[in-house]
Amino acid sequence: MSAEVPLSYYLILGALLFIIGAVGVLTRRHALVILMSIELMLNAVNITLVAFSRMQGNLTGQVFSLFIIAVAAAEAAVGLAIVIVLFNSRETLNIDEINLMKW
Amino acid sequence: MSPFIVALIPLLPALAVLVNGLLGFRVLKEKAHRLGVGSVALSFLLSLWVIWQVAFAGARADLVFYEWVVAGNFSVSIGFLIDPLTAVMLFVVTGVGLLVHIYSIGYMHGDPGYPRFFTYMNLFMVSMLLLVMANNYLLLFVGWEGVGLCSYLLIGYWYEKKSASDAGKKAFIVNRIGDAGFLLGVFLVFMTFGSLDFREVFPRADQAAVGVLTAITLLLFVGAVGKSAQLPLHVWLPDAMEGPTPVSALIHAATMVTAGVYMVARSHVLFSLAPVSLQVVAAVGALTAIFSASIGLVQNDIKRVMAYSTVSQLGYMFFGLGVGAYAAGIFHLMTHAFFKGLLFLGAGSVIHALAGEQDMRRMGGLRSHLPVTAPTLYVASLALAGIPPFAGFWSKDEILGAAFKEGQYLLWALGVVAAFMTAFYVFRMIYMTFYGESRVERERAHHIHESPRVMTWPLILLAALSTVGGIIPGFPPEGGLIHGFLGQVFASHGAPEAQHGLELVDYGLMGVSVAVGLAGWGLARFFYISRPEIPGALARRFSFVYRLLLNKYWVDEIYAALVVNPLLRLGRSLRNFDERVIDGAVNGVSFLTVLWGRISDLFDRFTVDGAVNGAGAVVRGGARNFRRLQTGFAQNYALAMLLGIFVIASLYLLF
């Protein structure tokens, strides 16, 4: 009977993954990498939700994580489509050069 | 009598004025006379019908067409009074008017202002008809001013010529003096009688005080003096000869200048009640008659001789009115219209033949070249000189006879002397123009020609009228048709023009008239045919008298010194005052205004604009700084969001 992994480990893992994703979103310059970082943040939340669900014996959290996976898939589809169109029109994915909204 | 037909008499020429005035130059051009002459011809026919009704059907009418002015108890209507006096005037105005219009077709042919000429002439006809048909003083005054305006327009018809436009102005200004008197007289009539209608005023005339009536009649006579060129306002008429000759014939001989005579005759009820005024009228008339006849003796311009003759004959008419012989005065007005119209038209024909020459010293011997003009002018001269049986004799003799029988022996003597002078100057004109050696300049001499038939026929018709126009209505003297006719108007007032038989004194007076006429004729013949050197010798011998007459008693110069030049000086000093003081004040105010404007401008630019621009600058400066937040990098926004969430979450957790 192996000892149960304590809840805090999961939460720490989720928090770490979320921070890594957030830093990636804020600092990376390549649009694809930013999309991947967003996936990382979403999945960090999923880990947290599933961990709380397991600990409390309530399935609501797991259901929510399934929803998040669906949303993430849709987000990936739309995001990739945008990336492709962006590349076609600008021939670059460096977001420093994509600054039309600047004053 | 149909009011419609009466109204048409002045309306037809008025219509022609409108059409010719609006379309004359663009559409009608050389055909302008068709309308001008046609309308007057129709008016003449209608007038004949009206005269027929008045003379043979005994028709009288006082037709009111329109209430023109109504203010309180003051009302003036546009209405026509038709009686024998109006009938005579209608015949003179439309008859002579028609002949002059026809004559003008030839005389004015080729003039650049042809339609304008007929427009003015027709406007004159309208005004003159209003004047003689009016049934109240105000409408009469409208016609009075209308003919004055047309006179001005037609004297200055050749307005490029300085002398012509000056003469027009002179006529207008001198007439203004008379018109002011006339208007004051009309005001006084209204104040006294409370109405301007003839039918209201005349029946009540004897209720007014003699002093008031004297004032009214003298003021009205001032108007007549101006309009009919009597002393001392006669100066405009000789200058009026600057106009085209048909104008001189129609306006300044036959019709307009007789308006004063007509007006006095129309007001005879008032004049008869004011003996002082009548005496003034008679004296002014007689003095004018001899005064201008004497000037006529020495004038060399053919039209000026006629002009002074006209002034002189108008004097006769007033003389006649003044001694109470109203019918004789109007009779002379009528015969004078015939023979003086003829004299002017004949003179025009001579001038036409000589291509504009008016100086009789450069005429002579034209009799054979002008086979129609010469005899017709001769007839007119006989009529003017008072040789029986021509027209002038009958009327002039009646005036002189009436004066003698009224006991005005001094004025009668003046009239007789004037008659002698008249006969002399008119035959002097005939002999200088048609007889003797030709003194015509060579370049004019070879194209002397008789005028076209459109000009000679009016001469012939007027010559016929000058021949029979006196004897038919005037025989026997003081008992002729004209007296029976006009007596219906004048009968109840003024001197008795009784239908008595001829007495010895009448034959004596007639003999004197004929004698002075023949004497003047004979003297002219002696001076200018038999002994042509005498006039020059006389002029040298009595050079002062000669120069006095030649320069028209220096009346123009006296007026210039006494009235015109002081007025001009006053005008000039007023102009200086205007330029210095008034303009100075105006310019000063404008300077101050400009200065204040500059100050406001500065305030506006620096204070008001400063505030507005300042507000804009503040907003723009702020925006320049704040817009740096809008980097356009999504990551910056995301970082800001994250920091925000962090802060909020921290605050939530801490508190």
From TrEMBL, chain B:
GO terms for cellular component: endomembrane system; membrane. Residues 68-118 form the NADH-Ubiquinone oxidoreductase (complex I) chain 5 N-terminal domain. Keywords: Membrane, Transmembrane, Transmembrane helix. It is found in: Endomembrane system; Membrane. Pfam families: Proton_antipo_M, Proton_antipo_N. GO terms for molecular function: NADH dehydrogenase (ubiquinone) activity; NADH dehydrogenase activity. It is a multi-pass membrane protein. It comes from the Bacteria. GO terms for biological process: ATP synthesis coupled electron transport; electron transport coupled proton transport. Residues 134-422 form the NADH:quinone oxidoreductase/Mrp antiporter transmembrane domain. InterPro entries: NADHpl_OxRdtase_5_subgr, ND/Mrp_TM, NU5C-like, Proton_antipo_N. The chain crosses the membrane at residues 32-52, 88-105, 117-134, 140-159, 180-196, 208-226, 247-265, 277-298, 310-331, 337-355, 376-394, 409-434, 454-475, 507-528, 637-654. This is NADH-quinone oxidoreductase subunit L. It comes from Tectimicrobiota bacterium.
